[in-house]
Amino acid sequence: MAGRLEQRPLDESHRVPSAKEQVETVPGVQKKSRFTVQEFEAPYYKSIRFRLTAWYAAALILVIVALSVSLHTLLVRALSNDAQSRLGNAVVELEDNISVVARLTSPRDPPDLGPYYAVTPPSFDSTLISGLWYSVFDNRRVVVEVDSPGGLSTIPDDLEDALGDDDVFEVDRNTFKSFQVGGVESMVLVAPFQAESVPGIPGPTAGWIVVGEPIGSRANIIQVVDQILRLFGVVGVALAVWGGWLMAGRALAPVERITQTADSIGNRDGTVSLSRRLEVPDTGDELSRLAHTFNRMLDRIEEAFNTQRRFVGDASHELRTPLTSVRGHVDVLLRQLRSDRAAIEKADLIEELGVVQLESGRMSRLIDDMLVLARTDAASQADILKLQPVSLDVLAREAFRTASHLATGQELTFTIDEPVTLQGDGDRLVQVMIILMDNAIRHTPLAGTVDLKVGRGFDPIEREWCASIRVSDTGCGIGAEHVPHLFERFYRAENARSRASGGTGLGLSIALTIVRGHLGWIDVDTAAGKGTVFTVWLPLAVPDQPEPPGTVSSPGSVSTVENVKRRMRLGLPGR
Question: In whole numbers, what is the pLDDT of the chain averaged over residues?
């Protein structure tokens, strides 16, 4: 129901002290110096820009290293497969050109030698296997052919070690090994070949072919490729880090503008300027939404700050009125006591002291109301309200008894439709009913009627069953232009709210705060000259019941009054 507060200019006497002045004037509070964002600027390595760039560079380095290792492995494997293919082709060429003749043993041969074979060296153009060297051994382990200068005339220990524990001449399949041959790293293929005991059928092993190739050229290729990968990796990382730094700075520029705007809100002289807003880029990204959110936050802060400033100014003005009255009457009494008159008329003294008592009571009520609002502003509703199951009809009887003493001739009536139980703070709900009834009594003529009615009702706007508290009067009513502002602090309607009525201007604000703490809301039905009805709706502690017959309506059939109420409810914070 509470509308947007309108800003009213304050004269110099109502000016709120700045934050700097408040700190300087509060006893026991040490004056604090003000720092700007630049003075609190963190080291560059802690900035989001640096961390984004560092993470980006680290991820890129990992990708480049993984890619380089993969390329290196693939290149080594490809070159190795190519070398093995060449060695295998060379063995096939050599086998095709080797002539094997079986020979019997002689008495001079070792007894365990068994049959052996005479191997005729291959006769073909050696350019077919250019760049390779080979050696051919018969089954007696005697070299038959050596391709000089890189061939082997004997089986070196290095080759034995490379082949493992097995003897070279025990190898029954093609075996590849890498080892040093004459100080040169080489890849060697040891391949057995067979004699034919029957044409077309392989026989026993007749000898071995050892083919090798220096791998120095392959190592040179791998080294060159590795150097190229390192060079491009370093250059790529440097360019990526530089570009990432620029992109991160460009992306975070709105954040820097938000920081500068937030810093500019508080000036160095202690004053506060909440009028600045961010320029929102039309990008639709996260930073654009952040700028929108920040501007909305500034709107709420500015509204709350202006409300608080008006509240303090209005409070000081409200307190000044009774204080001025008290001081004036006390001055009159003092002047009379100090005058030459022998005595003060008793009636005059009673009148003056009565005014002082009235104004001091008004100040006391005003201060109490301000303390209530201050506590609700400073704490959460959970810290203030003590929610428990309460019976609304019992609370209403208590409130009605208290309000009966406030009447000055008006007729008070009390109705309970049915007992209602809800989760609430009993003392606070009684306070709400007393505030509403006191407000109705003060603005109802002596012959008028004030009615308190509690029960269960169906709210046609929210379309749910609720506990309802209804306070109606036959007073002068309130103009429609004042209704949206009724719950603003210190607001008074010209035709229905005045200081002469004894109100502080805070009662309805307190009632609304308590009702909102119960997740409820307040409706107002009024018109000038037709009285006023305040209806408090509170959630029930029991499950919702079906809608009563005849209440179902389409959105287009909702009345204009209900639409106004709905808009006013949506304007209530927290609802």
Answer: 74
